[in-house]
Amino acid sequence: MKTNPIVSIVIPTKNSEEFLENCLKSVKRQTYKNIEVIVVDGKSTDRTLSLAKKYQCKIYQLVPKVKKGTFDAPYKRNYGVKKSKGEYVYYVDADMELPPSLIQEAISLCSKFDALIIPEDSFGIGIWASAKNLERRCYWGDDLIESPRFFRKKVWQKVGGLDETLAGGRDDGDLYEKLKENNYRVSRTKQIVLHNEGKLTVSKLFKKKFMYGKDVLKYVSKRPAVGIASYSPIRTSYLKNWKLFVKRPVDSFFFFIMKTIEVSGGVLGLTYSLTHKNNG
Fold it and tell me: Which of 13, 92, 126, 147 has the fewest CB atoms within 10 Å, counting from its CB?
């Protein structure tokens, strides 16, 4: 491994000013400095681009030709990786904040591994954000939910990157399965990325799961066993973390309400896709 390889951080954006600056500040604070930041934007109309320029990001515009309401981040991530110069690539969401020595740890681990899972925690405003925090902590170590985001670029290229046709239907999980099929070595960082939920609302939760629900069958059709397990609302990770639920009874109460709302959104999204498929 080179002593100071370039790490390319790819961030897909669309009107992301609410969170982007904190994300870029966290990148700038990294103890590892040989980083290029690539912002792939979907023609934002807010301050997203001015913030990207302020932090000297490389900016590309990409508006994929997909149906309105389709999750287009996989297209932007693949495009950003194609434009990258790094030996390593790491795709980050605009609402994520990195601990200062995360990239340094990732580079160290990649002397032995080909891709890394970087666990996520979350914070935000209100009870729904607290419930989401509880959920994310249950998923630490759950391979059906967590997927690698940091890769050797050569490995990314060999497995073909993200399957854009899956859209919100577990494109990241599919990429993880491709790594396993090709016997690539995957590890985890000890450090955790923070996911800023902002003011999380019932409407946001429902709309997101409705969008994802429209693509459920794509992943289940491609990977039946893993797909069915990954979409199941009943998870062993909840049972394994029962003590966490006991310690946080209020969050637990709203967690179950939140999951009911999300499952309802997903089912309606699935129903919508089946109806329109049959009509088409």
Answer: 126
